[in-house]
Design a protein that fits this description.
Length: 488
């Protein structure tokens, strides 16, 4: 029977869910509080420059392909991909960087040139990572997190020991060079947790990196947002922007409507792709499944200080993606997770999309995106933002041996307060809840409300976790759960 479904938010998980639910024959309307769709993956344009405001790494291309295949489509029906070579560059000091190329053979050669024997160790390590990837990404993450039994398979029982060691421990057993270790530890940061706290099984992220490579949609990650929007519209989804939800109406423990600008809109099902904690504040307190104490006890992935910068010249000695690990990796991690504070010497990431996409900046100019990971809930002010921009841009100049400060046309910052204002993000987190062992699968907040019938959730605070590919999967999982609930 056709149902009327109201979806809150328009990030990747909500957009994906809207497609699956419309495919099932439901009447689906998606409500977005901001003036443009995409959630954290919105786009920012100014003076001929174009920036992705959030996700900028296209990893796990197979997950995107699987999503479109569910609708008898291909990614190539909607957007073009470019494989980056080098995938990224990691800076450790002045004229001291390592480039990660687009194939494992070249990466092995790079490793071997730095640490004798590490090429062979890397091949073995990535082989195991691929095995874990095949189990996790092709199977486990497509389970709804309803029961711990979902994690028990013939394959996972063989890997049991990998849940009692950490990614960091395993890497350090095989590699001694600190620069190589940091490069191998880096991918699990996409899960929002420290490598020293992440189970070994999660080394499948290293296969996502070295095995599948780093890609770039031709004109940015917003290409993917536009593509899923196009698919949704083709399937009959209605999308309304500037539509902030004021309340979720519950009658007899059943979600029956949402309130927007004082207007009550009835729905058979309400699905929220917005921040999980915020969504529950739209309910009367007796209908909330998770208390404030619960949220306080969770380990959240970092917030971020972002800068979108337009330069009046081309930047030299840099790749599309660049990581700056010239300071103490462990100290910055401690400043995020152990004793939250602004780091004295921050690691940072820089992204220059105009190196690949000429439409990202006017001719002869460069678009730059800079990111500093920060503890969620941290104090945020314009003065701090400016102080940290000066810190990283000075180091950038030193490490890449060029002057660029005087070539800035404009810059826009985005930090914790903006994540709260624009996305209702709990403590201004940028990536959701960290995927630690005790916050995995069935231990994450549920896709289906435990207290209110016909109320569902999707996105980075629920199953399977943070990141764009998991968001697409989350949309599929919740749509299947909704379909199943109306069959029973």
């Amino acid at each position: 029977m056709k149902k009327t479904i109201a979806i809150i938010g328009s990030g990747f998980s909500a957009l994906a869910a809207s497609c699956y639910l419309a495919q099932q024959g439901n009447k689906v309307t998606l409500y977005e509080k901001n003036e443009s769709i995409g959630g954290r993956a919105r786009q920012f344009k100014k003076e001929g420059f174009t920036f992705d405001m959030g996700p900028s790494w296209y990893w796990m291309p197979d997950v995107f392909e699987r999503f479109f295949q569910d609708f008898n489509k291909k990614t190539t029906d909607y957007y073009e991909l470019i494989k980056l070579n080098p995938a990224y560059r990691v800076y450790f000091g002045v004229d001291d960087f390592i480039s990660i190329y687009d194939n494992l053979e070249e990466i092995k050669t790079t490793f071997e040139s730095i640490e004798k024997g590490s090429g062979h160790e890397l091949e073995t390590f990535i082989k195991q990572a691929k095995s874990n990837y095949d189990i996790a990404i092709k199977d486990l993450v497509y389970r709804p997190g309803v029961s711990p039994l979902e994690l028990i398979t013939v394959e996972t029982t063989k890997k049991l020991n990998q849940f009692f060691s950490t990614v960091s421990t395993d890497i350090r057993k095989k590699f001694k060079n600190e620069r190589l270790i940091q490069i191998l530890e880096f991918p699990v940061l996409f899960l929002g947790a420290k490598p020293t706290k992440t189970p070994s099984f999660y080394n499948f992220m290293n296969y996502a990196d070295f095995g599948l490579g780093t890609w770039h949609p031709k004109t940015g990650m917003f290409d993917v947002v536009r593509s899923i929007e196009k698919l949704a519209l083709e399937l009959g989804v209605t999308i309304e922007t500037n539509a902030a939800i004021e309340k979720i109406v519950v009658e007899n423990k059943t979600a029956t409507a949402i309130v927007i600008n004082g207007k009550t809109i009835q729905a058979d099902v309400i699905l929220s792709g917005a921040d999980y904690h915020h969504t529950e504040t739209l309910l009367d307190i007796e209908h909330r499944a998770y208390s404030e104490k619960y949220w306080e006890s969770r380990v959240f992935a970092p917030s971020s200080l972002l800068f979108f910068v337009g330069f009046d010249k081309k930047i030299e000695n840099i790749s599309h993606h660049a990581l700056f690990f010239d300071v103490d990796f462990n100290q910055h991690a401690a400043d995020i997770y152990d004793e939250p504070k602004w780091p004295d010497a921050p690691l940072f990431y820089a992204n220059f999309p105009s190196k690949t996409d000429q439409s990202a900046a006017p001719q002869g100019k460069e678009s730059g995106f800079f990111l500093i990971p920060l503890a969620p809930g941290i104090n945020d002010s314009e003065a701090l933002r400016e102080e940290y921009f000066k810190k990283i841009i000075t180091r950038f100049e030193q490490l890449t041996q060029q002057e660029i400060k005087n070539n800035i046309i404009f810059k826009r910052s985005f930090c914790k307060n903006d994540f709260v204002t624009d996305y209702n993000a709990y403590k201004g987190n940028a990536y959701g809840m960290a995927n630690t062992l005790l916050q995995t699968a069935f231990l994450r907040p549920k896709l289906k409300s435990k207290k209110v019938r016909n109320l569902y959730f999707t996105g980075q605070l629920t199953v399977p976790g943070p990141g764009v590919p998991p968001a697409l999967i989350s949309g599929k999982l919740v749509a299947e759960l909704i379909q199943k609930s109306f069959r029973s």
